[in-house]
Design a protein that fits this description.
five-stranded antiparallel sheet; alpha+beta; six-stranded mixed sheet; 2-enoyl-CoA Hydratase, Chain A, domain 1; disordered N terminus; 29% strand
């Protein structure tokens, strides 16, 4: 079989641009191009790509890209790297794609190899083994604790919201590295591990000059999406929304029914502290529980399109007086929910400024189990404010004394504000 130089250039270009997104082979006509033992093979014929002139190859976006450097580095690694058994072509291929997404400088735009993609989906189920930390990034793209989960090994070890994670050490995994430049999926994979195993995190509290180390033994982490309890002689419903996941709607409906069926309830505190967010559609659905009409969130896409999302169903808690609790761990969809209730004059906010994640990621499954998260839009509050890297400002700013774990000043303030409304 003969193949033209133009066709071969096109094949190489597609590989280089990582449009395959997973796997080392794809179909060209009736023959599959594969990388076998470091050699490119089309059907039964071996092809040398090292001698092909691909200078000034035209990429799909219309830019002239010289990919010869990419292949030169690949070739040098094949030829000269000392420890040959460490050369893993699949990992090199995935690594190239991960580098492509990382070059954008957006920690939320990431390529997920099959194992990482599956792990991301399991997170939505709310059950896994690990230390129990919600992760994010600060303004400098440094790895940050959004919030430790209540009762988790991380919380018991003294990890606090806002802590920077500077270094990871896990002897069993062979990890001893700083976190500068780490991606979110990579951080999750390295910090998570089987129950009973240990990892040492080097952390830095906000406002502190000196870091500290926390050795944490991993355990079973089960995260309920929604919980409700009743305060002040059952007159105040405390509705805790911890995350947006696959079971959120079911648990939400059950909790709402408990509130409705409690004849003593005359006020509601919606608590989204430590909630790292989820899908925009989930925020719209839950906000509709409290609003009879109005815009919940606005969106501006990468194509310049502007959309708004309004109340999409008849809620059950339209008239119950309420306030919303937020903190620096409230991010993404939980910020959308809180902002919608604030801007529509449905509730006041109590607590501390929220995290400030004002972008939206589109998630896609790719071939062979891989996936990609791409920042495709930004969201704005109903009043048109973009709170990215700023967060929502509470109407009543109250901080908790972290040295007094049995006291919740923010919750007490929320009760006080609610009593003034009832």
């Amino acid at each position: 079989m003969k193949i033209s130089l133009k066709q071969l250039r096109h094949i190489i270009l597609i590989i280089s641009l990582c449009l395959l997104s997973a796997g080392i082979g794809f179909w060209w006509g009736t023959h599959e191009l594969k990388l076998i033992d470091g050699k490119w093979q089309l059907g039964s014929k071996q092809i040398s790509v090292k001698k092909v002139d691909i200078v000034n190859t035209t990429a799909p976006v219309g830019k002239n890209i010289d990919f010869s450097l990419f292949w030169q580095v690949w070739s040098k690694l094949e030829e000269k790297y000392l420890i040959k058994e460490d050369i893993d072509y699949q990992k090199m291929f995935y690594g190239a794609i991960q580098g492509l997404t990382a070059s954008l400088g957006d920690p939320y735009t990431v390529f997920l190899p099959p194992q990482d993609n599956q792990q991301a989906k399991e997170d939505l189920n709310g059950s896994f083994e690990g230390v129990g930390i919600r992760l994010g990034f600060n303004d400098d793209n440094r790895l940050l604790v959004i919030a430790p989960l209540k009762g988790s090994p991380a919380e018991k070890a003294g990890v606090l919201p806002g802590d920077l994670i500077l270094h990871l050490k896990d002897e069993a995994k062979g990890i001893d590295e700083d976190t500068l430049g780490i991606s979110l999926p990579d951080a999750v994979k390295k910090i998570r591990g089987p129950k009973g195993s240990k990892i040492t995190l080097t952390l830095l509290h906000e406002q502190d000059d000196d870091s500290y180390q926390a050795e944490i033994e991993r355990g079973d982490i089960v995260v309920p999406s929604v919980e409700v309890d009743f305060l002040e002689n059952d007159t105040v419903a405390h509705l805790k929304l911890s995350r947006f996941g696959e079971l959120t709607d079911e648990q939400w409906d059950q909790s709402v029914d408990k509130i409705i069926n409690n004849p003593k309830t005359n006020g509601l505190i919606l608590d989204v502290r430590g909630n790292p967010g989820g899908y925009l559609s989930g925020a719209v659905n839950l906000a509709s529980e409290f609003l009879s009409s109005g815009i919940i969130v606005r969106q501006e896409s990468y194509q310049g399109e502007k959309d708004s999302f309004s109340v999409n169903r008849k809620g059950k808690l339209l008239n119950l007086p309420m306030v919303v609790l937020i903190d620096k761990g409230s991010a993404s969809a939980s910020e959308i929910l809180a902002a919608a209730l604030k801007d529509n004059n449905r509730a006041e906010l109590v607590g501390m400024p929220s995290f400030g994640k004002g972008t939206i990621q589109e998630t896609e499954d790719l071939i062979k189990g891989a996936g990609i998260h791409i920042t495709t839009a930004k969201w704005l509050t109903p009043n048109g404010e973009w709170i990215h890297k700023k967060g929502l400002e509470p109407d009543y700013q109250v901080d908790n004394d972290l040295t007094k774990i049995d006291e919740d000043n923010q919750l007490q303030k929320a009760i006080e504000v609610l009593k003034g409304i009832i």
